[in-house]
Amino acid sequence: MSRSAPANGTTVTFRHEVTSTTIWSWQMELILQNASNPTTPVLISLSGDPVYNGLEGPIVGGFPTAYGALIGTIYEIELVYLGIPFYFVLVLYMWFKKREARRKDAIRRAAKAIVAILKTI
Question: CA–CA separation, 28 vs 48, rounded Å?
Answer without folding.
Answer: 12
